[in-house]
């Protein structure tokens, strides 16, 4: 065999290794999904290598996607788009152009990206906000909160909270012609986490008189305690968000110290002093049978108390909204939860649905059987999937009917 054909063989084997990944059986557009996943994995491996060589932080390499997908704030025939600031926190603002006599609805949108990457100006997020503004004739505020590893918890939470608090003032709403009774907060993934946390925090804030009508949580991350839920086990290597990346996002939210990552990766990060919190994320009692399948519930294994003392954030409801008791849940607004079957975060969303319903909150749960995590990101060419459009339409239609 000549050198050239040998090289070709090696390249083909490597490519096949990258392209071939078990795609869940009920998914459509399998080839496209394999290629998208292969490019993600390549980038992730490059990031690992670069980090090991001491060149850059892992997340700086992943951030390349966010930067590549940056779009300027360009107004179109339906929406005026501007980059602005609310109380010094940047946000992208979408105001519908259509003249209407009455007040408008509003959606505060919190983008995903594991608290480390992503941005309101990324093409898919920008498009989703335009669609929302156009179809609902609503004002959309898409928050540009600060990211890890430069900023850790609670900076992300506080940036979002600052914008929400500022926007929910009568004078500000009046300026944009927004109806104070028709405001929603929405977010996907880490953004769903921030939306849920902020909505809980508002319940205790006497200074904010205007209430949110709806929270919409799109495949949200809601708990840090058990990173071995059935959905984590079933989707350890599922495209877009493997378990290792989710654990990395979680640990990076609190610190770049790799000891937290390692403890979380083996699910031994919660100190014994916090064992009372496990009942809030007990999948044995909170998951419907369909999702438990053959998984066997085992008692938690505790970690050292020093991690909990050094990084107490990961035991707080502001980071893990499932960690509150029922009395706190009772004040929450109408909630829309979207979960995907092939997603490590699936059970976070489902357990929140169970907890909210037990607390008497009205919840609309939309579970998509043939979806992966991050489905809403796949709505722009060349990485658009029919799935992305379907999920986006479902969410926006529900909002249109209920907000
Ligand atoms: C503006 O809205 C109309 C009606 O919803 C739609 O058909 C059109 O594509 C929108 N324009 C842009 C640039 O999105
Ligand atoms: C979780 O729920 C099961 C019953 O479904 C119970 O046996 C177990 O003790 C609970 N564990 C915790 C930590 O609450």
UniProtKB/TrEMBL annotation:
Name of the protein in question: Arylacetamide deacetylase
Pfam (any one): Abhydrolase_3
Source taxon at top rank: Eukaryota
One GO CC annotation: membrane
Entry GO MF terms: carboxylic ester hydrolase activity
Record flagged with keyword Hydrolase: yes
Alpha/beta hydrolase fold-3 domain mapped to chain residues: 107-265, 316-376
Stored PANTHER family: AB HYDROLASE SUPERFAMILY PROTEIN C4A8.06C, ALPHA_BETA HYDROLASE FOLD-3 DOMAIN-CONTAINING PROTEIN
Active site residues of this protein: 189, 343, 373
Family: Belongs to the 'GDXG' lipolytic enzyme family.
Keywords associated with the record: Disulfide bond, Hydrolase, Signal
The keyword Signal is assigned to this record: yes
Residues making up the signal peptide according to the UniProt record: 1-21
